[in-house]
Amino acid sequence: xxxxxxxxxxxxxxxxxxxxxxxxxxxxxxxxxxxxxxxxxxxxxxxxxxxxxxxxxxxxxxxxxxxxxxxxxxxxxxxxxxxxxxxxxxxxxxxxxxxxxxxxxxxxxxxxxxxxxxxxxxxxxxxxxxxxxxxxxxxxxxxxxxxxxxxxxxxxxxxxxxxxxxxxxxxxxxxxxxxxxxxxxxxxxxxxxxxxxxxxxxxxxxxxxxx
Length: 211
Description:
This is IS21 family transposase. The protein contains eight helices and four strands; from the N terminus they run ααααααβββαβα. The chain is 46% helix and 17% strand. It is α+β, with helices and mostly antiparallel strands.
């Protein structure tokens, strides 16, 4: 990075002092190409950004580290390994690099994934039959004179905003499936996709279950 005051010194030496590029190079300790770039451009700051981060030690271990990081993300929070544990595991496999190399790779990977997620687009309007939204809420009701808390399954069509509500004594997997069955019967059909919030366990079962 070339500071603003250094850029001013180069230009003042050349345009005011009449010094040659060779003289400026000697006096200021800069490369000739740098001096030429300053004199030929109107920029006020020059920065260097490395396009490719060389990882000579990590090189052959990148694929294995990527596999470990991906597998670690799929584990429950309490079972996930920290970067130090992953680094120690790589060392046992024969990795001779340092911990900073592993840490920089993991941080850069996290930033890239974060950018990809933040660039996602969620439409605010939906076509008929395109999607529904499903969620649970806790409500307090009076049954036979007794005040009790119930779990309420709520399914709403994203296009028409039509709502279906059904109460259950608790939130269990069987009741999640029953709520979907009753809602689809009420709507007389289903949608192309569903939108869920904090329903990862149930969604995984529905998505990958053999039945």
